[in-house]
């Protein structure tokens, strides 16, 4: 008798998807699906048909699963089909469940820590006591993913209901903008798109991450934080740019979601231009959720970039209180404060750390500082960040500074030991609010879906616990100890200053900068002041000086005065850069006492939002139309107008819709053809760009009905 010859192998893609929480992947919903997507540590079913009847007494059937081109112990599972096979969470097994003549049904169990990826299968058959073998190579994809529903998986989340949000939700929000005007920018993650898993596999291969390490979410997430940007390697997904010039690619503000980015990356096998922090974070969420790692996007409003590990953000001024613009103690780069910075939290146990540091971990795909010699960051346990426990893997010190550093201002002073004396210190400025999307909610028109998670990153600002946690970190850094020792000896003078906040300015409106001065002493004071308005990129880099005024003011004993300057739209409009962020700064010095003071504030010139309206009720697979519109806020014509619209529920996924040139103060209008291909609620995200105005966004949720 000859060994069995395989006719066909089938893994029931749709049926397995139902029990493995993979039913949303587009590839398993095709008319005749062949790609199977399952989760590790959970049995899945298959069937094999041979060209002759199976003889249980004499035929041997072996399944050999392999990952990568050089399989080793961790990346290979070799099992014989047996009726009495017993599932073991740490081993491969294949149980024969039914025999029908030439067709065998079986159930495969995988180890709960097996590496994730696209596995190959070889079926080997032979007759007992015969060396002759027949080999059949299965030619379809079999993806094995993380299983956060399984208590034995390192990514397990106890509250499994939350996995509907952190693994299965394919639309979300990213909070962007300065603290007073921050808003949720809708983002389509699209992790179930047909191109996403192949793009993720391509990215991991380009990272040269050994296959046997791809089952460890700690190592995998660290690699993801490295590979979503292409800063120090050729294989990364996105090229980061904050220049405002994106003519040879896509401006970061024009993206509506991750799928188009990953498709371009996969098709061109080149880095995609261009991304910024919130684009990186959107793509990271897509990659993690596609692999089965719970993930959320996190926005830190007023975020510190501590370039010298002092746990402080240091600003330096000349003797006359002009902004120095660099750090004389750190030639490699100055500290900076971003209006906001966006990164990700990923959920996992941390068996590599002492008990108590599992749960949410911060990873940051925006290249800022080297970690382990490369631009990568995290995973850093939120609990370690909150308690100031440095020295735990990975990058807890950098993340602690990002959310809780003290802002320190220094004035050149030849008599001081460091060459600079401290002007003031602010314990409250950094990490003003940390936001993510609230589970199970999506508010396309407002911010009802905003969740404040500041207390997960740090104790209440100013509380004893918050100070203790920061000082816990300071004790582990000699440089930080030196800076904070000076701060504790700081004395305040009797003249107080306050820069008034500017809350909102609609684009095209004027605004005023005001500083209140209170002389609490019994002596008059002569005060020199400098007020400036500057356009800035959101990462704190200054763009153009809009206006600067210097002057002196006399303040009598126990008197209140104010100094102010007006800035007109004509002065700032030509100098606005992307996202329309402005920084107002005030620097003063008291003649009689040499007391100095400085402060600054960021705000955003506000733009309109896109209105998305549907002409009729949407019916599945029936063509309809939507109207996209907003009012041009500028006193000039908009040219080269284009909307970009994305929705997981529409045919075409991402479409570009041109709009006619629109005169000053006129309404920009375009018609969008829609063909819904999914029942229930679908979400639509839109952006707009023109030569004169961009970064206009909008979103809508709409129900799709049966015909």
| Continuous helix count | 12
Give the tally of structural domains: 4
Radius of gyration: 30 Å
Query: What is the number of beta strands?
Result: 39
The CATH architecture designation of the largest domain is Alpha-Beta Complex
How is the main sheet built?
6 strands, mixed
Helix/strand class: mainly beta
What's the CATH C level of the largest domain? Answer: Alpha Beta
Regions with pLDDT < 50 over 5+ consecutive residues? none
Overall pLDDT score: 94
Structure, described:
The protein is mostly beta strands. 15% of the residues lie in helices and 38% in strands. The protein has four domains: 6-145, Immunoglobulins (Immunoglobulin-like, Sandwich), CATH 2.60.40; 164-478, Alpha-Beta Complex (Coagulation Factor XIII, Chain A, domain 2), CATH 3.90.260.10; 492-606, Immunoglobulin-like (Sandwich); 611-705, Sandwich (Immunoglobulin-like). It contains twelve helices and 39 strands. β13, α5 (259-268) and β14 form a beta-alpha-beta unit. α3 packs across α5 (259-268). It is globular and about 110 Å long. The two termini are 57 Å apart.
Furnish the topology, listing elements before pairings.
Layout: E1 6-10, H1 13-19, E2 36-39, E3 44-50, E4 59-66, E5 76-80, E6 93-100, E7 103-109, E8 117-127, E9 133-137, E10 142-145, H2 163-166, E11 171-176, E12 183-188, H3 196-206, H4 217-227, E13 238-240, H5 259-268, E14 272-275, H6 277-291, E15 295-305, E16 312-317, E17 336-348, E18 359-363, E19 380-381, H7 382-387, H8 396-404, E20 406-412, E21 420-426, E22 433-437, E23 450-452, H9 454-457, H10 464-474, H11 478-488, E24 495-499, E25 505-506, E26 511-519, E27 525-536, E28 542-555, E29 560-567, H12 569-572, E30 581-590, E31 596-606, E32 611-614, E33 618-619, E34 624-631, E35 642-646, E36 654-658, E37 667-674, E38 680-689, E39 694-705
Parallel strand pairs: 2-10, 13-14, 16-20, 25-31, 33-39
Antiparallel strand pairs: 1-3, 3-7, 4-5, 4-8, 6-7, 8-9, 8-10, 11-12, 15-17, 15-22, 17-18, 18-19, 20-21, 22-23, 24-26, 26-29, 27-28, 27-30, 30-31, 32-34, 34-37, 35-36, 35-38, 38-39
Helix pairs in contact: 3-5
């Amino acid at each position: 008798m000859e060994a069995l010859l395989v006719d066909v192998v089938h893994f029931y893609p749709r049926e397995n998807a139902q029990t493995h929480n993979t039913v949303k992947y587009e590839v398993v919903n095709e008319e005749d699906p062949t790609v199977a997507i399952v989760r590790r540590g959970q049995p899945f079913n298959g069937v094999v048909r041979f060209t002759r009847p199976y003889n249980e007494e004499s035929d041997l059937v072996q399944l050999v699963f392999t990952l990568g081109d050089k399989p080793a112990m961790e990346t290979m599972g070799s099992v014989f089909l047996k009726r009495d096979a017993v599932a073991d969470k740490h081993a491969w097994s294949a149980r024969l469940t039914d025999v029908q003549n030439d067709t065998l049904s079986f159930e495969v169990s995988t180890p709960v820590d097996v590496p994730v990826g696209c596995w190959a299968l070889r079926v080997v058959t032979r007759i007992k006591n015969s060396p002759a073998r027949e080999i059949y190579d299965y030619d379809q994809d079999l993806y094995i993913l993380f299983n956060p529903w399984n208590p034995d998986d390192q990514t397990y989340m106890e509250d499994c209901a939350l996995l509907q949000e952190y693994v299965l939700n394919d639309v979300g929000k990213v909070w962007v903008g300065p603290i007073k005007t921050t808003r949720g920018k809708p983002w389509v993650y699209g992790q179930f798109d047909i191109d996403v898993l192949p793009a993720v596999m391509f990215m991991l291969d380009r990272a040269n991450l050994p296959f046997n390490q791809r089952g460890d979410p700690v190592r995998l997430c660290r690699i993801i934080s490295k590979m979503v940007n292409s800063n120090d390697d050729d294989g990364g997904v996105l090229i980061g740019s904050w220049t405002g010039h994106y003519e040879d690619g896509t401006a970061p503000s024009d993206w509506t979601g991750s799928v188009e980015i990953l498709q371009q990356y996969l098709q061109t096998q080149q880095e995609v231009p261009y991304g910024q922090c919130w684009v990186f974070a959107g793509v990271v969420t897509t990659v993690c959720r596609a692999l089965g790692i719970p993930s959320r996007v996190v926005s830190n409003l007023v975020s510190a970039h501590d370039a010298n590990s002092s746990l402080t953000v240091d600003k330096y001024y000349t003797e006359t209180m002009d902004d120095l613009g660099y750090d004389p103690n750190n030639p490699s780069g100055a500290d900076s404060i971003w209006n906001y910075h966006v990164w990700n939290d990923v959920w996992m146990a941390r068996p590599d750390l002492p008990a108590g540091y599992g749960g949410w971990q911060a990873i940051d795909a925006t290249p800022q500082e080297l970690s382990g010699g490369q631009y990568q960051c995290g995973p850093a346990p939120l609990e370690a960040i909150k308690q100031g426990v440095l020295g735990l893997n990975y990058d807890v010190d950098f993340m602690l500074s990002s959310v809780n550093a003290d802002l320190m201002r220094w004035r050149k002073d030849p008599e001081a030991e460091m060459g600079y004396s401290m002007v003031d210190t602010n314990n409250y400025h950094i990490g003003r609010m940390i936001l993510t999307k609230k589970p199970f909610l999506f508010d396309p028109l407002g911010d009802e879906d905003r969740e404040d998670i500041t207390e997960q990153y740090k104790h209440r600002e100013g509380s004893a616990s918050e100070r203790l946690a920061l000082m816990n970190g300071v004790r582990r850094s000699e440089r930080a100890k030196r800076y904070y020792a000076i701060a504790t000896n700081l004395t305040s003078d009797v003249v107080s200053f306050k820069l008034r906040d500017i809350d909102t300015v609609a684009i095209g409106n004027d605004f005023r900068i005001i500083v209140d001065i209170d002389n609490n002493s019994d002596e008059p004071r002569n005060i020199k002041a400098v007020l400036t308005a500057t356009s800035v990129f959101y990462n704190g880099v200054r763009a153009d000086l809009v206006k600067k005024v210097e002057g002196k003011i006399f303040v009598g004993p126990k008197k209140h005065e104010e100094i102010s300057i007006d800035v007109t739209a004509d002065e700032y409009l030509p100098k606005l850069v992307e996202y329309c962020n402005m920084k107002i700064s005030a620097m003063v010095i008291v003649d009689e006492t040499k007391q100095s003071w400085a402060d600054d504030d960021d705000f955003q010139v506000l733009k309109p939002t896109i209105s998305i309206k549907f002409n009729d009720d949407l019916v599945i697979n029936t063509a309809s139309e939507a109207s996209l519109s907003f009012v041009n806020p500028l006193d000039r014509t908009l040219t080269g107008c284009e909307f970009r619209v994305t929705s997981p529920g529409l045919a075409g996924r991402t479409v570009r819709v041109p709009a006619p040139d629109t005169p000053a103060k006129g309404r920009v209008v375009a018609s969008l053809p829609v063909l819904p291909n999914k029942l229930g609620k679908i979400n639509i995200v839109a952006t707009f760009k023109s030569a004169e105005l961009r970064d206009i966004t909008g979103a809508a949720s709409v129900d799709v009905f049966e015909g």
